[in-house]
């Protein structure tokens, strides 16, 4: 199974994808295609994304059972922890921890 | 929607947690802060905040420079994820979540086998049998089997050394100085740490005690060593030699990745749980009566068979429920 998510990409790319896959909700596509087609569809996404973002998740034989790839997202990236893939997000919490950024003091009240 | 509408979260349902064998094996973190953010377990990475799916994780290995918050520790325990602090010098310090089992049935079975010398010897022989391709003959004494095992381990090192072209001068690690050990020895120690963590998580998840070892004895983690030893030569040794033969850098990390690939390929998590139950002569699919309601009172022992707990006996009305809840 392959899942592709498109954000702010040209409508023609979205239309093109729907020829292979089912559009579950706006920009989210699910389908079962072989490895070759999956890679070709990914190339297509990357090529035509313009300034939009695309994400692909697909089945693999690794421990997690799936792999992730991303394109065009400056705030998110895939990180590898000795063979496990997770997503790192540059959110406000991360920004606070960066050098040069003096975090405001706050009490940890729960 | 308004912030004031707070979502109330129910206590962790044990059935939601993936069984140990279906989950991820281990995750090693270092130089990071593990905390809870909106119920997610997040850790700080140079590339951003990373949410870690701990409910699916067997064991979290925390390396040097890690900080864990109180809330994160609680969430880890709730999701049955074992936590192991591993030092760069190969020393391990264990902590554990409560595991996914609430019933003590399996632990009682372990104790039963452990306290009976005849049964214990049977388990020990079974454990050795799992390591040899051919079951050692019945007439061999335990001493002879230990000798065979020593020869098998030396042979594994020699073969791995030959296949990878990495010279081998014997297992040697200095507890005082990590960097003084040669790269292969460091690689083996790193891989072993993962395996120990995993065995520890499997033991807890099955509802056994890590302290009551059969071959190993006298330490709080004796049973962990027993279980990890069943797979060491197969999982860690070839991976360690291979990692060292490829590149001199990042040996520890590459060993972990290789051991993980081997664990996936051989479906070790499933095998480990099955072996564990087989050794303990336990029913692998046995029901956990506390799975649905972990606060349910346990039974009371009686030589003629356990009787229902949480009941006030000898009161005016027999069967009257005790007022005090447990836990």
General description of the model:
The complex is a heterodimer of chains A (110) and B (327). With 110 residues, chain A is of the alpha+beta class. Chain A has helices at 11-17, 35-48, 92-97, and strands at residues 2-7, 22-25, 28-31, 53-59, 66-71, 76-81, 84-89. Chain A has a five-stranded antiparallel β-sheet, with helices on one face. Chain A is globular and about 50 Å long. The N and C termini of chain A lie far apart (41 Å). The relative contact order of chain A is 0.15. The mean pLDDT of chain A is 90. Chain B is an alpha/beta fold and 327 residues long. Chain B has helices at 70-78, 105-115, 117-131, 142-164, 183-206, 222-229, 232-235, 237-246, 251-265, 268-279, and strands at 24-29, 33-37, 40-45, 48-51, 57-62, 67-68, 82-86, 92-95. In chain B, helix 4 runs parallel beside helix 8, helix 5 (183-206) crosses helix 6 (222-229) and helix 5 (183-206) crosses helix 10 (268-279). At the A-B interface, strand 6, strand 7 and helix 3 of A face strand 1, strand 3, strand 4 and helix 9 of B.
The averaged pLDDT of chain A comes out at 90
As a whole number of angstroms, the C-alpha radius of gyration of chain B is: 23 Å
Estimate the mean pLDDT confidence of chain B: 84
Largest interface: A-B, 22 and 24 residues
Sheet/helix structural class of chain B: alpha/beta
Shape descriptor of chain B reads: flat
- How much helix is in the residues of chain A? 10-25%
Structural class of chain A: alpha+beta
Q: Beta fraction of the residues of chain B?
A: 5-15%
Indicate the low-confidence ranges of chain A by residue numbers: none
Main sheet specs of chain A? 5 strands, antiparallel
Assign a percent range to the helix content of chain B: 40-55%
Largest sheet of chain B: 4 strands, mixed
Please, how many helices of chain A?
A: 3
Shape designation of chain A? globular
User: What's the number of extended β-strand segments of chain B?
Assistant: 8
Q: What is the gyration radius of chain A calculated from CA atoms? A: 17 Å
Low-pLDDT residue intervals, each spanning 5 or more residues of chain B: none
